[in-house]
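Lab notebook page, bench 4
Experiment: in silico fold of construct C2
Operator: M.H.
Input chain length: 786 residues
Purpose: comparison with the prior construct
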Amino acid sequence: MEDEIENLYQNEEPHMTESDKIKLRLRKFCYVIGALLILWVISIIIVFAVNKPQNNNISWDEAYKRAHKFISNLNPTEINGLLNGTNNIETIMSPYKTKNEISKNKLCEGQIPNNSKIKFKGMCIQEGTTGVRFSNETGILWQSEINTAATFNKTLMYKIGKAQGEESKEKGINTLLSPSVNIMSLSQNDIFWESFGENPFYSGICASEIIKGIQENGVISTIKYFLGNDSKIYENLNSFNNDNNVILDNYLEPFYRAIHDSQVGAVMISNEALNKTYYNKERNNFTNILRDILEFKGFALSDLFDTNNKSIYNCFLLDLNLGKNCAGELPKQIQENDSFGGSHSYLPLFQDTMKNKSANESALRIIATMYKMNQMDDYPEVNLYNYTRKNESIKIQKEAAIESQVLLKNEKNILPLQNDTKIVVIGNISIRRDCQFGNNIPLGIDSNSTKSECFISPLEEFKKLAPKNNVTVKSLSDIINSNTRKKETGLDKIESIVKKFQKKSINVAIVFVTTSLDKYLVVDDGLNSSLWYNVDNLINITIEYKIKVIVVINTPTVPIPSWLSRVDACLFSGYPGAEASQAIVKILFGEKNPSGHLPFTWKDKGQPYPSLSFLDNVTKVDKKIEKIKKDEFKYNGIDSDGLLDDIKNYGEEKYNYFPFGFGLSYSSFIYSSNLTVFINETCLTAIFNITNNSTYPGQAVPMMFLNFPDIKGYPEYLFKGFEKVKIEPNKTQTVTIVADDHALSNFKSELNKYVRVNGTINVYIVENGKITIQKNIKTNYTSYKK
């Protein structure tokens, strides 16, 4: 300080009067004091920020301690009010309700009503996998979960969750019904886009990163559906059938990760039967699994519109009911109605269960979770129409859309598009700006979908970028008149159109194709409403006329096309969200390097999933007695665990088989032959080098598969680790992949716990389904016994 004051006397002019000198000194002194005051204020703010209680800074033990104190002051009626929420969907969707009415009454899809008497502000519960539902186009339209999974970028997943959590909190949402963590065993599945794919380990990793981001904001994340919910089609009539060991080793895995790795706050209970009954020893055992084996500390809630007279058996699993009143008067007779064989009443057993269910415990879990997330004292008021389209969130969504693009094929490096190329863009979704469902690129229509603002179409984006890339872009309408487009279903009509491409010197056709497996909507595409069914003919005829074909697939899962072996390039785009057009076009022009990878297996031979004819045989329903007449389907394994089955024939099946994790890049990566592996009591670590042997900066996604020693019933290859690394041209980077203790364990039903494997583990580093390097390492379970 003395030095600073001394400096005030420097640089004074000799001719200045004494009075002027005093004024100058005072002025400079004031500047210094002002600066010091500003620094002092800043330091106070920093100290306050550092010491400010964070959303997750208290332990579950402390949260339960506070909840006990809160609950101890409540009477039975007040406690019951915490357990039975209201369902507002019908009201929100009513054509007689205006947006102002909904906003004024702060209607969320599900709510625990506020109670000023006990100083409880209530709980707002809202869907939000792809964006906050019923938010009146004020929020971000996110990519589908299957696209999020395709990024294979854990850091990005966390950023997505954090942005979604921020958005939810700003709208006053306490509990976000996201993410969905069920592994999808059925490729033709109406909610495939709501999953992270087929692999249990990977689904758990994706969910955990997103949950960490959501809950960092103090928003309760919800994993769903516990357990075995593979379809929403007639979900009240489906049965999830499998051996308990398979369920515990595979289907439970994503829930384990979400609970242990990210301390998720809520679990939504599935509405499907288990092994053909809604209430049995297995269902009761799953309650013990959730609380005892998984050590879940949060609360369990029902789906919206759940708990009908069959699935009401779920009531004993629930803490929070958003369907019919589980705590109210029970039906006089509850029975299976012979849905899965047999007809007998479960009422006595159900009544005994409900008698033993503790309302206090359920209320305690709900309130403890709210304390854990710092929601009880100060939380934003509900305003779903609060505008939350922030630039940073838009940037994250764009990044996710780009990184989720999976390049499946690129013959003779036709991509990125070359200078002087003349292209025609085909397909209604390439020109559509229909924003009813949020975007020109379709999104699955379900409770997890949302609306958003209109965005630029792919065709507009093509024309925007074409000039600087010296590419000529034409749409189908530019080449043929509108009258010609009516009902162009015949081969002769399609051929006449393709001939016009030749006359216009078109040398590349970019075909956007789509369909929907969604139970509410079928999205058609192309020359007319039935191009989806004629896309084979269009593509094959175009190829016959020596025009190169690039196909962009926008579906929740991949179709089985006959043209895949003949097209020059294929981009699996999925449902990329609001920034879809920029993501797709920037990839095709080479402004971005594709780095997405398939989170599921794609075969066109055999049946990679238990039932490819699922939609054909699952729902023969007699409406009168709600009896299913169908072939039973059983889930027998996880395809990504056996991704290397066809590796010997990889060259022959190059275009017909894409393994889990497949995705091409404009870069070329070389993996070192040296692989260092070591193991200890906490993890297995693999270290190796990757070189980018190209002129493109790119992102490699090395994957680690393990072969466990002599474990009966396990596939040969188990996916247990991965990283996404950005590597500059002609640079080498060291990569470290870690498999934690849980990844090195399997569930022992006889011990009712997870146990570390013992023996020699084979370690494989895999790129695009091909083993690049491998090594064996011995482990001794007794050395690492917990």
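Observations: The CA atoms of residues 218 and 294 lie 22 Å apart. The two ends are 58 Å apart (CA to CA).
Next step: discuss at group meeting.
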